[in-house]
Amino acid sequence: MANRKVAGPEIERLIQLLARLPGLGPRSARRAALHLIKKKDQLLVPLADAMGVAVEKVGVCSVCGTVDTSDPCTICCDDGRDPSLLVVVEDVADLWALERAGVLNARYHVLGGTLSPLDGIGPEDLNIASLVERVRNGAIGEVILAVNATVEGQTTALYVTDQLAGLDVTVTRLAHGVPVGGELDHLDEGTLAQALKARTRF
Amino acid sequence: MANRKVAGPEIERLIQLLARLPGLGPRSARRAALHLIKKKDQLLVPLADAMGVAVEKVGVCSVCGTVDTSDPCTICCDDGRDPSLLVVVEDVADLWALERAGVLNARYHVLGGTLSPLDGIGPEDLNIASLVERVRNGAIGEVILAVNATVEGQTTALYVTDQLAGLDVTVTRLAHGVPVGGELDHLDEGTLAQALKARTRF
């Protein structure tokens, strides 16, 4: 806060930890801490409880690699999902984003990152072997590679495709093109080129 | 998240509670929750602990009305501060902001809001009686009314001044004027008028 102390070290520590959350800076962390303290019963107590529960219960699903409070996770246990459709994502955040889109009724496989030789991340650091195993053993008809449209994402997709070659499965990837609501004027040349190449009949 | 569940209710609840923090919306709350879960040992565990400590220890100082883990608070117990200088603020956030400015070496009195007849907030809802008592009993030479430059703040300042009339104390208020770094072109007429009226010799 300042050089002089305005409150006990416990409050300073709470502010410092809150400031490490994405989206909160030092200033908003102070505001959040004060808000929590003022709304002790309505917010601080329940949030402390919820975090305690998360500490205790949250883990990684041994089947798909997402985070959940049960193992296998909620999605892997959901019998209402199509067992033949498997969506491969880099990260849990991508899984959540795709679920919000609400188009698919599939299961997922979280790689846990992308191949990045410069950062020392090789195939053995990602959940690729377990993906191949899952496809080999399961009744999976299609694997959708829903990775980011970055160099690392596409490199990883290529590698995964290679690993799945020879197995009886169709491998697909997301369409590239103009984002819904996007203005051509603001798009980069690469996206426009892809959108033109992949044009469809009106 | 979506109509279909992608994780156990404990994670959903964590996200919902995080979304109630100022500065975090539903989207950033999801990001924060995922960040916490991924950084379990480095962030989630310490933050849950810090919140637990706050739940247990944080309270309101019986002397000045700020929040702290001790009563009387860190500031009220700080012998290095000038006991004759008392700064009256609306809220704990204002106290913290003034301490960051680092100009004063004073003690504080937190009113806990402003007079607002429309919202049913009268003098008895604020820490005004305790302020008068403190000034009457203490060796306080100057009371600085550091309230917001809003109608409610100024009304409250007037009322407090009235209550302190007759006591042997100088009551002062913050200067109005051009904010440091401010451009005249962007300032409202009221601020400019005050800055002109209170002009000082160069």
From TrEMBL, chains A, B:
PANTHER family noted in UniProt: RECOMBINATION PROTEIN RECR (PTHR30446)
Molecular-function annotations in GO: DNA binding; zinc ion binding
Record's keyword annotation contains Metal-binding: yes
Lineage of origin: Bacteria, Pseudomonadati, Pseudomonadota, Alphaproteobacteria, Hyphomicrobiales
Role summary: May play a role in DNA repair. It seems to be involved in an RecBC-independent recombinational process of DNA repair. It may act with RecF and RecO.
Family assignment from sequence similarity: Belongs to the RecR family.
Toprim domain ranges (all copies): 84-179
PROSITE patterns: RECR, TOPRIM
Xref: InterPro entries: DNA_Rcmb_RecR, Rcmb_RecR, Rcmb_RecR_Znf, TOPRIM_dom, TOPRIM_RecR
Pfam families xrefs: RecR_C, RecR_HhH, RecR_ZnF, Toprim_4
Gene encoding the protein: recR
NCBIfam families: recR (TIGR00615)
Name used for this protein in its record: Recombination protein RecR
Lineage top rank: taxon: Bacteria
Keywords: DNA damage, DNA recombination, DNA repair, Metal-binding, Zinc, Zinc-finger
Entry's Gene Ontology BP terms: DNA recombination; DNA repair
C4-type zinc finger span: 61-76
HAMAP family: RecR
